[in-house]
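This is your field. Please look over both lines of this record.
***
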Amino acid sequence: MTDNTIITAKDLNLKFETGDGPVVALKDVSLNVNKGEFVSFIGPSGCGKTTLLRAIAALETPNSGSLSVNGMSPEEARRHRAYGYVFQAAGLYPWRNIAKNVRLPLEIMGFDKNDMDARVKRVLELVDLSGFEKKFPWQLSGGMQQRVSIARALSFDADILLMDEPFGALDEIVRDYLNEQLLKLWHSTEKTICFVTHSIPEAVYLSTKIVVMSPRPGRIIDIIQSDLPDNRPLEIRDTKEFIDIAQRVREGLRAGHSYE
């Protein structure tokens, strides 16, 4: 892994205007994400985790501060296809089979047909869904649908993968399996991943860096660099090293609440 900074936020503030007055979603957020890192954002509901991810993706616009992605503004980064985005729900079109769902961004971007076919084959292999090309979303489990969503986000080979709590609605057994698969995928692709979660064990298991956020207005309470080894069987969650990091995350979440 290199220490090249790929995402930089400095003194970021973002508020929404509502019928009841302004709501401050992010306050004085500063953060660097380095190339090849797996960074999780964790905090209570409404703390601004998803808002920060959406700002990186140019889906929300900060009121003040600076934000750069690959040395560009988020809008420029979007035009340069710098990232893929995986939402909480898989968002697959029921009338398109799996291959055609994965092809959709490639069609929009105007890729050559042969190139599209090769990319769809490659990313479905990456998420272990070869052979499911002609199936339709309703024929797949929720976990498999999310893997299709991840394949779609990987199809145009962006450097950055933004993931907004993609496994939150899945049961614990499926979630454990997909956590393992995502780590393998991260190692094989060397992408930079920004991952929103409510789960302390998930954040600790997956991440090289954990960003702990406070209740609204969302502030960064702690940034934890994980020293867990790259090779992480699920059993690592029973080790002292894992439990110590989880405890620091828990303390940060408690400190964030007491701040209010």
Summary: The chain has two domains: 5-82+159-259, 90-157.
